[in-house]
Each structure stands twice: as C-alpha cells, then as structure tokens.
Design brief:
mainly alpha
C-alpha cells in the first residue's frame, strides 16, 4: 500500500502550547488527506475527482478558520504585541484558500496537487516561524496567571 502523506508530523513542529499543537497536527492531517484525494483521483479522466476532493477541501478550509479563530483569541487575551501582523497573515492565507476553493472546479489535477503542496508548505512555514513568535508571550501569561491564583 502506498503512503500518500505528503509530509509527516514531526516533533520539531511542536510549539509547546498543547491545544494549538493538536490543531496544527490536525491541519497537517487534513492537508495530507487533500493531497491523497487528488493524487488518487488523478488517474480518473472524468471530473468526478473534483467532487470527491471538494469535500476534503471544504473540511480543510473550515478547520483553518476554526484554528485561526482559536489562535487569534489567545493572542488577543495575552495582548500579543504583533497580533495585527499575525492576523493579517491569517487573513491573507484565508483569502487565498477561499479564492482557490471557489474556483476549484476549474483546476487541473496538477494545479490541485500544487495547491495541496502550497497548503502544507504555508502551514509549516507559519508554524516554524510566525507561531513561535507568540509562544513566549503566551507562556509568560500562563505562568503569571498561575501565580495570581
């Protein structure tokens, strides 16, 4: 049996905030599922692959929105200084997702595979750099909150 995962979750992507790490892991799983759907369906000469893949893409889009909302609430709660810039990156990515998903029926298999790869690459870049920037602020907030109790 073929392993369709474009990328595997790795401990190096853990930022140390458990709920967010779990959400990141789920995002990777959904992106891999999208990649797998497109990869498996690429042999199909009909347009049926788009119908099958669209469901997974919609799940991906919805989960990204859920995750970004959760992350943004945390950043606001801890008064993260770069909240606006981080949210702007989320908004730009969300717009790209919405643009591609609304135009998904016009994509070729290659474009759909490229988009799947783009999703994974963006998520890992975002986790590896931008998400790590707020970790210290969140951890300090949590530490100080425990002291006050």
């Amino acid at each position: 049996m073929e392993d369709f995962n474009y990328v595997k979750w790795d401990a190096k992507f853990v930022i140390g905030i458990v709920p967010i790490d779990e959400q990141h892991k789920k995002l990777v799983e959904l992106c891999n599922a999208l990649y797998e759907k497109v990869w498996t369906a690429r042999k199909d000469n009909t347009e049926e692959w788009k119908v099958q893949t669209a469901v997974t893409l919609k799940e991906c889009v919805n989960y990204v929105a859920t995750h970004f909302s959760y992350e943004e609430k945390i950043m606001k709660a801890v008064n993260y200084v770069n909240y606006s810039a981080h949210k702007k990156r989320h908004d730009e990515f969300t717009q790209k997702l919405l643009d591609v998903s609304s135009n998904f029926n016009n994509l070729t298999v290659k474009e759909a595979l490229d988009f799947s790869k783009f999703l994974i690459d963006w998520i890992f870049e975002h986790i590896s750099y931008e998400d790590r920037l707020y970790v210290k602020t969140v951890q300090e907030y949590m530490k100080n909150s425990k002291i006050q109790k």
